[in-house]
Design goal:
2 domains
């Protein structure tokens, strides 16, 4: 009954109630839309990292990770993973693993005519890369062949910045020099199959991709640097990593299983930045909505002082009046959250449909599409946040009611 009375009280001053609902509606929509953009950014960035080449997990000799888990940290270390084909089959037999493929990282120098550039090489198994759900963003030419090419017909993919530095195009022949595992200098002529982008300007200035067999000829080794592993479910990364660590613990050479977040520390930095921005914006919206509704409820109390005095005089408990004011605030929260949800759904649908392109983020190459990813639970949590916020906003007017003196209230003008 008290809840119904509180709902009817909101219709007393419809203009004030409508303004309050507008404030809550746009506050709710603002929080949800910001959360949707941040969630989409997290999902897009993690997907780009995982399927851009890093995979969910990497398995490598523990000793090779002493200098760090990043690609550039280990580019000069000789490949040390022996019998990687047997290990790969063993890993792919585990539950949750989609596919695995060998990778070799190396550093060297590439020349084309009179142009020279330092390179960071990554050797892959193209057929395995496709099985792992990874893609290469070609900007020209074609990808690497699935099968190893004959000696003298080795192919290479050059990143966009490196191709510009060398002045190379698909069909050109470049010479790549690197140090073998024995410490001697070796060189190999490679035909440029295509031009690609990693999505990051810093990497595009040095990165190249070759077949693992080509890297083996250049480095004079049959070993690999690591195994890249992709999973059927990103959410199971920690569980699968623990399973692989247990299975591989008996390996003669100690192996380490590294997840993608460890290999890409900038993801956590970006995530921390975006969460900080969301908390800051959410706090501002919360303060504005809370102050606005608190002021509205204070005005409502001032207009109803004699009414409250009369209710107290006929035996209504102060706690009931305080509860009535709290219920009015909660009704505003519920109705405003519902309206904000509807506005959010409409705006998100429109934005996602328009496919608006935004400029590339700092250090990135490709523009990003403005899109929103909102989950059903987000609406629930934001509604709870608004209810808690308005319950707090109702405290000052509620305290005013609790301090009312019956005689003064009845004589209030």
């Amino acid at each position: 009954m008290l809840a119904l009375i509180a709902l009817r009280n909101l219709s007393r001053n419809r203009r004030r109630t409508a303004l309050s609902l507008l404030v809550i509606t746009f506050g709710t929509a603002g929080v949800l839309l910001t959360l949707g953009f941040i969630r989409y950014s997290f999902a897009g960035l993690s997907d780009a990292i995982i399927h851009g080449g890093l995979g969910h997990l990497e398995i490598a000799p523990a000793a090779s990770l002493a200098q760090g888990a990043g690609l550039m940290d280990r580019s000069g270390a000789p490949p040390a993973l022996a019998d990687w084909r047997i290990l790969r089959d063993r890993v792919e037999s585990r539950p949750g693993v989609l596919a695995a493929g060998a990778a070799i990282q190396f550093a060297g120098v590439a020349t084309h005519g009179d142009r020279t550039g330092a390179v960071l090489g990554v050797a892959i198994e193209p057929e395995r890369v496709r099985r792992m759900g990874m893609s290469v963003k070609l900007r020209g030419g074609e990808g690497l062949p699935d099968e190893p090419t004959a000696t003298g017909d080795d192919r290479v993919l050059l990143a966009l910045g490196l191709a510009q530095t060398l002045g190379a195009a698909p069909g050109d022949v470049i010479t790549v020099m690197s140090t073998t595992v024995d410490g001697t200098l070796n060189a190999l002529d490679l035909t440029v199959a295509g031009i690609f982008t990693s999505g990051f300007q810093d990497l595009d200035g040095r990165l190249m991709q070759v077949h693992v067999e080509t890297a083996g000829r250049l480095l004079a080794t049959s070993h690999a640097s690591s195994l890249i592993v992709t999973l059927t479910d990103t959410g199971a990364t920690a569980a699968v990593a623990a399973d692989l660590e247990s299975v591989l613990s008996s390996n003669p050479v100690p192996l380490a299983v590294v997840d993608w977040e460890t290999r890409a520390p900038f993801y956590r930095q970006v995530r921390g930045l975006y969460i900080g921005i969301f908390v800051f914006l959410g706090s501002i919206i919360g303060v504005l909505v809370g102050l606005s509704i608190s002021n509205t409820l204070q005005m409502s109390v001032m207009e109803r002082v004699r009414e409250f005095g009369t209710l107290l005089a006929i035996g209504t408990r102060r706690s009931q009046l305080a509860g009535l004011m709290t219920l009015e605030a909660l009704w505003l929260a519920a109705l405003g959250s519902l309206a904000g949800t509807l506005v959010t759904v409409a705006v998100a649908f429109l934005i996602n449909m328009l496919q608006i392109e935004m400029p590339p983020p700092p250090a990135a190459v490709d523009p990003i599409t403005l899109s929103l990813l909102i989950q059903p639970l987000d609406f629930v949590w934001v509604a709870i946040f608004m209810a808690a916020l308005l319950a707090v906003a109702a405290v000052p007017p509620m305290l005013r009611i609790l301090r009312l003196e019956v005689v003064e209230a009845l004589g209030h003008v």
